[in-house]
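User: Can you write out an input/output pair for a complex, sequences first and structure second?

Assistant: Here is one pair. Inputs:
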Amino acid sequence: MTSFQPPAERIWWKTPVGKDELIWIGIALVWCLIMFFMMPYWHVYGKQNLSSEAYQTTPAKFKARVDAMVEQYKTGEEKGVPIVSPPAGSDVYILARLWQWYPILELQKGKSYRLHLSSLDWQHGFSVQPVNINMQVVPGYEMVLNITPDQSGDYGIVCNEYCGIGHSTMLGKIIVKE
Amino acid sequence: MAQFRICPDSGFYFDRSAEQLMKVNAVAGVVCLLVAGIMGLGVILTRWQTIHLLPADMFYTALTAHGINALIFWIIFFEMAVLYFASSTLLRCRLAAPRWGWVAFALMVIGAVMNNIAVFSGKSSVMMTSYVPMQAQPHFYLGLILFAVGALIVCFMFLGTLVIAKDEKTYEGSIPLVTFGALTAAIIAIFTIASGAIILIPTFLWSIGYISHIDAEMYRVIWWGMGHSSQQINVAAHISIWYLIVGILFGARPLSEKVSRLAFLLYILFLQLASAHHILVDPGMGTEWKIFNTSYAMYLAVLASMIHGLTVPGAMEVAQRRKGLTKGLFEWLRKAPWDNPVFSGFFIALIVFGFLGGITGVVMGTEQINLIIHNTIYVPAHFHATVAVGTTLTFMALTYLLIPVLFRRKLFLPKLAQWQPYIFGGGMTLLVLFMLGAGTLGVSRRHWDMGFTGALLSFEYPGTAYMMMAIAGIGGVLGVIGGAAYLIVTVGSLLFGEKLEKSVGFLESFGIKPLAAELYTVERPETLALAEKLPPEEHGPSGFEAPGTFMLAMLLLVCFVIYYFINWDYLASVWPMG
């Protein structure tokens, strides 16, 4: 009967701490600091980092820019969805809406792009598979990611933020060419 | 005039109104767990793709109901009982403002029912997070607000009872560690409810048309000030209960009062920052903001959890060794009462919480690593390790203690109770492990159909992902069976359990008919004395007080380090970005 009794020593904050605890606290603190500094370290030496570039926008403004890109660089269509091949290094756009990722982007392997993401309606989850890159897409905000696809192939975009009854049919596509 | 009864088995003094409030809150919690469990079964049998039980609309309704009833209503009702217990019962003090306890309980019941009506009407399937601009019915939000107001009242009653106990000198020295931990939970709860009010009240006004627009990103930041912090109430509460259980079962005391209390203080100071975990891949937050907040400053709250991870089993080890179980590193653990569900439930909760819940939580809360985990089914895997095993199994273990002590009944079907923690803990562990695996393969959470039936374009998850979801399904079903066993034992004990006092029937135990008056006295309980002084003992060549626990802690650290760097390695394989 002690963990639920008042401490044996009235001045309990002055009783010495045992060796086990002191050593463990020391080890744990060092580990915590290593984990903390891993994040800034990766910002300097790692290649996969999150962007902090974002803008407030409106559905109409964002859609106009997406439409302009589609008109300029459209190279084909798959099931009615335009396939767009913008030049390497350019600004590319994917918009989320109920229940579609629009348009299909065709990118070149090893080239960098400024990818803009936003939603026209509810929140969506931008989940590129199978490479497993996941971003939150929030209406009213435009996130800009600098991406460099380094493997070629067809990638699916799954929506992984619940967005209503058609959520599980919301699939998009990114094509990465050699 | 306050009336007390002493429990002849445990020596606890129960204030009559506190006792009744504990009972009703615990029972209301169990009812919510029943709803949550049935909905959970529907969810897992739908995500098990070969069964795919529910249609899409019912699936999202069931998922919303499962989340809210399990994460909010069950846990918080039960925590209210814990707050009454840790203040009034442990401090042998009359309850502050007992009538307010009934007001609070009424508000919470009305709120929970109102919210459930909105969800089960099928028109508020917005998930627990209810992200704007997707809109639920007004009474969805109003129900949550009323529930939170009730919980807030109980937090202030808890603080009031502490003040009375101090004033009337019902205890010597400082408050016990378990009460200190509950105080931590109450302080975090007040912060949590304040965050909830800041965002839910405007959202409610928006749902009835008084406010035209709620910014979606602002909603996410503030909502998670409630959503994540409410899980930190659970952490503080269930760790307090761990200290209570080792105290009751083994007569254990903390290795050091200073260290354990400092760890709770670190929770108060730093746990709240964790709402940033949910915002890491959102637009608009700066890198420094993310790193500082997601790491709780410098992982200082993780440090606190690692400390409790040593001191809780360490306290048990020291107490067991004093009883002569000193052979080798682990005799104290081998000879623990593994057939007592209070112990097995607590210990399984401790291990799964630390090894699975804790490690995965830190890994996915790492700023960059989050981008390979965010919104995959890895996330619910993590919080089923922390909340479904860590918190819920701890509350189940505590229930087996409360049935004789608080309700004065013998356990109904004690054999079933003995197996229950293993079935529930084992099933949920299986669920957690395989959902972690499926999440690593990119399987989405909150998703009705991983086969994407009806989609215009196509994508296929690998066969392994389907297999993992099927095994997770088996684990989930086992978990539901374990949950059902808990409900059978608990409800059965209240209805049919042998009475420990002949005069107390089922209704009386809720205070509906006057309780056997001779059990209660208006006499003031004896003052709660200081714990007895005991010099520390040292064991083994290392001269440690708890060498076995230290080994377990080192094992945790090794798993932690390896798994942490495996995930960095995985991250390094995805497309470069920045």
